[in-house]
Write a structure and sequence with these properties.
Distance between the termini: 81 Å
CATH architecture of the largest domain: 3-Layer(aba) Sandwich
Shape: rod-shaped
CATH superfamily of the largest domain: Vaccinia Virus protein VP39
CATH topology of the largest domain: Rossmann fold
CATH class of the largest domain: Alpha Beta
Oligomer: single chain
Largest sheet: 7 strands, mixed
Helix content: 40-55%
Strand content: 5-15%
Length: about 375
């Protein structure tokens, strides 16, 4: 509790009230003990206290009665003040003030002194209690919210750093060496180009044919010459430049990046070559899922891969040592396409049998 002398500043350590203050305070309340209803107790008692010092009750308009309610008794019995034990005290007896029946004034100097100190002390205590309530009800939760928010932000920062580290580690595992696209030469269709074009003309949907990776654009150029809208994707800049010199519409970038920028169900057909020989199996499965989402329902996919035996002879030891993936057999691609949700999976051949370095496996997106 904080004791404040009249006109002073609260000091909870040095301004603590003496014991006589509390005994005097108790005696003052006993002398001013009101009678009647609850409303009368609070309203009338404090009105009388204020009038005892010649002041109007706070908030009472001029000209309005400030005493007890009209339905309450206006006369209260004069009683001998009692001490802490209930016996009579030596203090003077309150008497009705002249000209104000039913009103009492305070004549005791000790009582006046106690009440004068009581009011600022009560105000100070009210402010302290109100501040404590506000702190507990508002400031406390706000501070706890701010602390929780700061902790959450810090946790998210830590989590983001961990995710970045995991992604960087995964990227290093997938692509341990920069420029792996250059470790493998472009996959030429050669003698199979006519077979691929005829099959695409027969099975494509109304939409452009996308070839990733298109190398120098021979397949895209053949499709455009046959009246089919088509464009290529090529990650190697100088190779893509050669395709552009042939008037081929080519997008420089990886298959996943360019396909990822396309709208859903917008491609009339997708041809995959080159990239299918050097990616890890997990990346190939992810790429097939992306291709399926970009195909118009019912549109086909054609995978042109290099046989593992031919790749070892064509690539040399460096590509075999550094690439994260390796060429797959056509039987493996049949399984991968079926597991990716493609239908009518089959191997596309011209009937000339084995011996070619290139094979083609086809499928279609279910309608």
């Amino acid at each position: 509790m904080v004791y404040v002398a009249a006109g002073g500043t609260p000091d909870p350590v040095h301004d603590a009230p003496p014991p006589t203050f509390f005994s005097g305070l108790a005696a003052a309340f006993r002398r001013r003990r009101p009678q009647g209803s609850l409303r009368w107790n609070f309203s009338g008692a404090f009105t009388d206290l204020d009038k005892g010092f010649g002041r109007s009750a706070p908030g009472t308009p001029a000209g309005e009665p400030t005493g007890t309610p009209a339905h309450e008794p206006t006369q209260r019995p004069t009683q001998k003040p009692t001490g802490p034990t209930g016996g009579p005290t030596d203090g003077p007896v309150d008497a009705p003030a002249a000209g104000t029946p039913g009103r009492r004034v305070v004549h005791d100097a000790v009582e006046r002194h106690v009440l004068e100190r009581l009011k600022p002390w009560v105000v100070t205590q009210a402010h302290a209690v109100a501040s404590g309530v506000v702190a507990d009800a508002l400031v406390g939760p706000v501070r706890r919210f701010e602390q929780g928010l700061a902790s959450s932000v810090e946790a998210f920062r830590f989590l983001a750093a961990r995710v970045e580290a995991v992604e960087a580690d995964a990227d290093r595992r997938r692509h341990p060496v920069e420029g792996m696209d250059w470790l493998v030469p472009a996959t030429p269709f050669g003698e199979h180009i006519r077979l691929a074009v005829d099959w695409l003309l027969a099975h494509r949907s109304d939409g452009p044919v996308v070839h990733a990776e298109c190398a120098d654009g021979e397949l895209v150029a053949a499709l455009v010459a046959a009246g089919v809208p088509a464009f290529g994707i090529e990650p190697r800049g100088s190779v893509a430049w050669r395709a552009a010199e042939r008037q081929v519409d080519v997008r420089v970038g990886t298959a996943a990046d360019v396909l990822g920028e396309m709208d859903e169900a917008s491609a009339g057909a997708v041809v995959l070559s080159g990239v299918v020989d050097r990616l890890a199996v997990g990346d190939l499965v992810e790429l097939l899922g992306l291709v399926r989402r970009r195909l118009i329902p019912g549109a086909p996919v054609l995978v042109a891969g290099t046989t593992p035996d031919a790749a070892r002879a064509l690539w040399g030891p460096v590509a075999g040592d550094l690439l994260p993936g390796r060429p797959l057999h056509p039987e493996t691609w049949e399984i991968l396409l079926e597991r990716a949700g493609f239908t009518d999976v089959s191997r596309l051949t011209d009937g000339r049998g084995a011996g070619s370095a290139l094979y083609m496996v086809t499928g279609g997106r279910s309608a």
